[in-house]
Amino acid sequence: MTRIVIAEPGSGGHRLVYVRILAEEAVSAGLDAALCLGNVEREPEYLRHVRPLSGAVHVRHSWSGSLPELEDHSSQQEADLTVVPHGDVLLRELAIRGWRGRGELSLLIMRDPRGESFRPSRWIKGRVKLSAAALVSTRRNVHLSWLGQAGDAPTRLGQPVVVDPYIASVTRRETQEMADKFRTQHGMHDSHLWVGAVGSLSHRKNIPLILKAMRQARSRTDLPIGFILAGPRLKDCDWSELDLCRTAAKAKLEYRRVDRVMTNDELNTVVSASGVIVTAYSVHYPNSTLIKARSLGVRAVVAGDTFTRDRVKGLNGVFSCRLDVDSIAEAIIRAAHSACPQPSEEYDSRAFASRLFLGALR
Predict the structure, then answer these.
(1) What integer pLDDT is reported at residue 361 of this predicted model?
(2) Using an 8 Å Cβ cutoff, are 320 and 303 in contact?
(3) Which residues pair with 3 in a beta bridge?
(4) 3-class DSSP assignment, residue 161
(5) Is residue 362 over pLDDT 70?
(6) How many Å apart are CA 219 and CA 238, to the nearest integer?
(7) DSSP state letter for 90
(8) How many CB atoms lie within 10 A of CB 169?
């Protein structure tokens, strides 16, 4: 039986979500899986995503993120393959000394520095990271992949791209039924175009900018527009809940708010309940909200710089634009007058795991 170690020292972002997906796919395929994690057992993300797996996989809590420690663990576990879903943390060490653990090593690089800030310090760090990735990809028994999103090319810098998966524990039909109930419960009238923004709401998601664009779109069209905002407001935001309510009221926009941490199924429900999903990120991380919209057949507006817009060119039902009020308003109007795309099934979790498991899934 193939023995797989899945290693992740942190708990932020999607890290433990990816650990769960990989562990579940390994177990369902009959593989012998073990988890090598940091001291995260008290973190909410661990309790939500990993603790339910404790009966099916062996879990170790002590990895600090160092390469020698992971190599020792791979030998102790007699691993055939070690998978690190946040492989960025190991790039520099691997570039210097290579992999000395047991079996193969599969790394997923989450952040592509090419689209980040042009500040000299960031640019230099980005060049170092790209050089390290190029060197690591030549190391013996090391396999490097880049995390991608809908619209990305299948390879990047000579290595494969692994697309951020659509995560759900229910069928798309059940998600649609949940969305219908959600619309009823929250008074989301069928006569309105409901524009949605979802997820953990940091300042990088530019929620006030989206709301201003909706106000402008409302002034340009007779179509009634509503805004559904779902997810917790993070501490780095420069807006308050009262600010949004006042802005929506002045613009005569219907406004609905779900202010809490939500499961993937709940986020999928809100996306499915929306007529158009808007993302207006100031960062270049893979856009998981876009994956949800594509998977559920929901129109999407993607605002950002040239790097961001180029990634989604040619995707049916996706309207890209610059990151400013006028451009987002125009894109919302274009989306409102377009047909909904067909739901896509190309972003499932098995395809995600299969790439990182190097074909071990059969």
Answers:
(1) 65
(2) yes
(3) 32
(4) strand
(5) no
(6) 26
(7) G
(8) 10
